[in-house]
């Protein structure tokens, strides 16, 4: 099974990074995404800090003169990443805030899709009364729904529709006809010389075993071209390239993800733009390394720093990698979490075997990243850990179901976590 991806050849990319970003830091609450890139960018420094919790930080009045560069997961989510970089004497390589805001907005992004010639489900922008043509089943979205997916609801009855319109009254909403299809994420990067279109993944959303929220992100698995209906993978890449070009016109540079829906008839419908790194980029970078391409983190940095990049398209063997966001299934305070690293299952329980590289995982192993810390208050649907597997985690279908192996791993992670009463 193969797929086609584009990117910067690894040797050329590492050389350009050495020349233009000899001091480069990945900064986030977890090193999981940076760790995959660091295997081929050995001078990449990992700064483990959860700036998304630091919502009250202010930019220093006299920032340290930049001596290096930093890249962060979602720098638009508050001031944390910007304040940290300024205090550390690092220039944060982040996309233009105005372009990010326009692309991330569930309503203004509709114009970008239209300009790119990307089809969407039938959609209404609702500010008050719902048009008569908008009948259930419908998907209702708040315009600002970054990172969590909790601002997206499926409504299948008039009563549910009334309830959600009442709950979100006073807001301008995006309401779309519900379409059955396979949720696909295309990972891309906008550069000054064009849009790099990388790996395709099956987006796992709203899986009941992992979340109580219909629209919540539950994980991803890399997919080969021939898993989708004939011609669909090629059309997904075309749409990603055209949307990336429109983002470029707005002044956007860097990594982004495009969420699409592939119908059984191979129609490709655009759903939303995530103008930032996504969790799936960890898997994508493993695929890029296997294809001899620079990981997305490096391409993102170069997109800002150099006027043009050598980009090539390659056909490469598909890596069977997946990841699941393991969430709490009860309300409480975390007393004990899981240990980051490679684990094996023994009698349904985790056995930590050390640290490891995602691309080196063997059958029966998993790489765990602890994302909740002892003392954290958690509720059902809130993230405990990221679980990465060297195998598919779910069926590739409009309503995916976890594999037996994936269910066993999820149970073991939850069993290893102690959640006490509040």
Characterization of this structure:
Among the domains are: 11-95, no CATH class; 122-177, Dna Ligase, domain 1 (2-Layer Sandwich), CATH 3.30.1490; 320-422, Aldehyde Oxidoreductase, domain 3. By secondary structure, it is of the alpha+beta class. 24% of the residues lie in helices and 31% in strands. The radius of gyration is 21 Å and the shape is globular. The longest helix is centred in the middle third of the chain and has 18 residues, at 232-249. The protein contains ten helices and 23 strands. Helix 1 crosses helix 9 (296-305) and helix 2 (32-38) runs parallel beside helix 8. Residues 110-310 form the ATP-grasp domain.
Rg calc = 21 Å
User: End-to-end span in angstroms?
Assistant: 49 Å
- CATH architecture assignment of the domain at 320-422: Alpha-Beta Complex
CATH topology of the domain at 320-422: Aldehyde Oxidoreductase, domain 3
């Amino acid at each position: 099974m193969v797929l086609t991806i584009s990117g910067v050849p690894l040797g050329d990319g590492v050389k350009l990074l050495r020349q233009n970003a000899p001091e480069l830091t990945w900064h986030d609450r977890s090193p999981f995404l940076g760790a995959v890139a660091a295997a081929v960018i050995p001078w990449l420094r990992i700064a483990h800090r959860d700036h998304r919790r630091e919502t009250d930080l202010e930019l220093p009045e006299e920032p340290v003169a930049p001596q290096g560069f930093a890249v962060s997961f979602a720098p638009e989510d508050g001031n944390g990443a910007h304040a940290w970089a300024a205090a550390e004497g690092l220039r944060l390589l982040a996309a233009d805030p105005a372009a990010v805001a326009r692309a991330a907005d569930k309503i203004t992004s509709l114009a970008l899709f239209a300009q790119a010639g990307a089809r969407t489900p039938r959609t209404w922008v609702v500010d008050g009364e719902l048009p008569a043509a908008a009948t259930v089943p419908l998907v209702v979205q708040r315009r600002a729904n970054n990172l969590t997916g909790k601002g997206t609801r499926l409504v299948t009855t008039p009563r549910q529709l009334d309830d959600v319109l009442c709950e979100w009254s006073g807001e301008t909403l995006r309401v779309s006809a519900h379409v059955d299809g396979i949720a696909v994420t295309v990972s891309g990067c906008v550069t000054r010389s064009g849009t790099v279109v990388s790996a395709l993944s099956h987006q796992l959303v709203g899986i009941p075993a992992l979340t109580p929220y219909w629209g919540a992100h539950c994980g991803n698995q890399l997919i080969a071209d021939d898993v989708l209906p004939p011609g669909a993978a090629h059309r997904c890449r075309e749409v990603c390239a055209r949307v990336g070009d429109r983002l470029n016109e707005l002044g956007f540079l860097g990594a982004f993800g495009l969420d699409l829906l592939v119908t059984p008839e191979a129609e490709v419908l655009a759903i939303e733009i995530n103008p930032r790194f996504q969790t799936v980029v960890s898997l994508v970078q493993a695929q890029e390394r296997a294809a001899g391409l620079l990981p997305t983190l490096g391409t993102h940095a170069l997109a800002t720093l150099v006027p043009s990049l050598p980009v090539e398209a390659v056909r490469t063997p598909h890596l069977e990698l997946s990841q699941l966001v393991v969430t709490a299934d009860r309300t409480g305070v975390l007393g004990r979490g899981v240990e980051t690293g490679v684990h094996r299952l023994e009698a349904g329980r985790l056995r930590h075997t050390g640290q490891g590289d995602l691309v080196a995982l063997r059958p029966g192993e998993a790489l765990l990243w602890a994302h909740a810390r002892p003392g954290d208050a958690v509720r059902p649907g809130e993230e405990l850990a990221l679980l990465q597997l060297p195998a598919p985690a779910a069926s590739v279908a409009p309503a995916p179901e976890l594999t037996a192996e994936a269910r066993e791993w999820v149970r073991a992670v939850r069993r290893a976590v102690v959640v006490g009463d509040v």
